[in-house]
Design brief:
By secondary structure, this protein is of the alpha/beta class. It has helices at about 15-25, 50-60, 80-90, 120-140, 175-185, 200-220, 250-260, 280-295; strands at about 1-5, 30-35, 65-70, 95-100, 140-145, 150-155, 170, 185-190, 230-235, 265-270. Helix 3 links the parallel strand 3 and strand 4 (about 95-100). The N and C termini lie close together (about 5 Å).
Length: about 300
C-alpha cells in the first residue's frame, strides 16, 4: 500500500514550496492538490490555481508524483486542459497523475455564471469530457463535435512525457462513472459514501466501500479488464472516521490495514491545516508518513 498526501493550494509560494519539498522528503508516493476555483470553508481565504501550483511544485521537487485530486468539467474544457497537462507532464519529467471527476454543485458550478448542471447533465458531460481528453492526450491532431464539447484540428504535439498518456485516476461511485474508470482509468478514486459522514459508523463505511469495490470489479469485467490492474485510491477525511486515523501511528495503521483488506492500494491523507477540518498534529502526521508504509507492506 502506498501513502500519499493532498496539499490544499492555500499557501503563498514562499511558504508553499517548503511544504511540497517536505512531502517529498517524507517519502510520500504522491502529493496532490485540489482543482477548484474556491472550496467550502476556504472560499473567502487564499486559494491558488492547481495547474500553476503543480508546475511550481514540479520545479521544486525531483521524484514525488504530482497531480490533481480531482479536476472536473465544471470550469475546464478538454482542449485547453490537455495542452496544460502535456506541458505539466513535460516540466515534471513524467510525474503527473490526473485525478478527474464529474464535479459537484459547489462554487465551481456557478463561478462562470452558469446554472448548476443536473446530476444527469454532469454525468453526460463527464463521459464526453473523459473520452475527448483521452483522445487529445494520445493523438497529435483531434477534431470532434459532441453534445457539450468540440475540438477542431486541435494539435497536441509532442504529447505526454508518459506514454501513451499520463494516467487517469477516475473518481466515481455511480454506475456510469465506474464504467468510465473501468474503460479509461489507471486508477479509481473514492472518498467513501457521503451519506455516512454525519451519522454513520466506521464499520458501515467499510461495508459501503466494499460494495463500491465490488461494483468496480463488475464494471471492469464488463469492459474486459482485470480489476486488479487498476490502483484503488481512498481519499481520507470524508468517512465517519474523520480525523481519528491521524491521531496516532497505531490508529492510522489500523485504519489503513482495514482498507487494504478491501483492495485499496493507495491512501491519501490531508496535509495538516490548523483550525480547519484537516487539523492534525504535524509531528504525528510526519511520523505516520515515515513509519506507516513499512507496517503496511
Amino acid at each position: 500500500m502506498r501513502l500519499s498526501t493532498v496539499i490544499l493550494p492555500i499557501h503563498r509560494w514562499d511558504e508553499g514550496q517548503k511544504i511540497w519539498r517536505r512531502a517529498e522528503d517524507l517519502g510520500f508516493h504522491a502529493a496532490y492538490t485540489y482543482d477548484h476555483l474556491s472550496w467550502r470553508t476556504f472560499r473567502d481565504e487564499p486559494w491558488f490555481g492547481a495547474v500553476p501550483t503543480l508546475t511550481a511544485a514540479a520545479t521544486a521537487t525531483q521524484s514525488v508524483r504530482l497531480g490533481t485530486l480531482v479536476t472536473s468539467p465544471n470550469f475546464r474544457h478538454p482542449v485547453t486542459l490537455a495542452k496544460e497537462l502535456i506541458s505539466l507532464d513535460d516540466i515534471s519529467g513524467g510525474r503527473i497523475t490526473l485525478g478527474i471527476g464529474a464535479g459537484g454543485t459547489g462554487f465551481d458550478a456557478t463561478a462562470l455564471g452558469q446554472e448548476p448542471w443536473t446530476p444527469r447533465e454532469r454525468a453526460n458531460r463527464f463521459a464526453e469530457f473523459v473520452a475527448l481528453l483521452d483522445r487529445l492526450l494520445t493523438e497529435d491532431a483531434v477534431s470532434y463535435e459532441g453534445n457539450f464539447y468540440a475540438a477542431h484540428e486541435a494539435r497536441n504535439i509532442p504529447g505526454c512525457a508518459q506514454r501513451p498518456r499520463l494516467p487517469f485516476a477516475v473518481a466515481a461511485t455511480g454506475p456510469r462513472g465506474l464504467r468510465l474508470a473501468a474503460r479509461y482509468g489507471q486508477a479509481w478514486v473514492t472518498t467513501g459514501d457521503p451519506k455516512l459522514y454525519e451519522n454513520g459508523t466506521p464499520e458501515q463505511s467499510v461495508q459501503a466501500l466494499r460494495a463500491q469495490t465490488e461494483k468496480l470489479a463488475d464494471a471492469c469485467a464488463a469492459a474486459g479488464r482485470d480489476a486488479s490492474a487498476l490502483d484503488k485510491v481512498l481519499l481520507t477525511g470524508f468517512t465517519p472516521d474523520r480525523g481519528r486515523p491521524l491521531e496516532s501511528l497505531d490508529a492510522f495503521v489500523d485504519f489503513a490495514g482495514r482498507h487494504r483488506e478491501l483492495g485499496f492500494t493507495e491512501i491519501v491523507i490531508h496535509w495538516p491545516i490548523p483550525d480547519s477540518d484537516f487539523a492534525a498534529d504535524q509531528k504525528v502526521f510526519e511520523r505516520i508518513a515515515m513509519e506507516a508504509p513499512s507496517q503496511l507492506t
